[in-house]
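Lab notebook page, bench 4
Experiment: in silico fold of construct C2
Operator: M.H.
Input chain length: 86 residues
Purpose: comparison with the prior construct
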Amino acid sequence: GSVARPWLTVIVPTLNEAPGISAFLRQPALLESDSIEVIVVDGESSDGTEYLASVHAHRVVSASRGRARQMNTGASFARGSWLLFL
């Protein structure tokens, strides 16, 4: 069968967010809905953020540091009809 396209993609640019990223991504509203996908775009973190995010996010991608660059990278991977940048 085909996988339904999410209506919302949540894009989370990160840089050294290890202390809080797991708790944030474990929110049931983010991960238990087939209509929401979560993409974390890590900007060269040095504290393990990318690994921690990979446990919970639907997709984790890397980008050079810079909020706009990270947001644009996340948007390029988004499948949702709507984008929410956090």
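Observations: Residues 47 and 64 are 16 Å apart (CA to CA). The chain has four helices and four strands.
Next step: discuss at group meeting.
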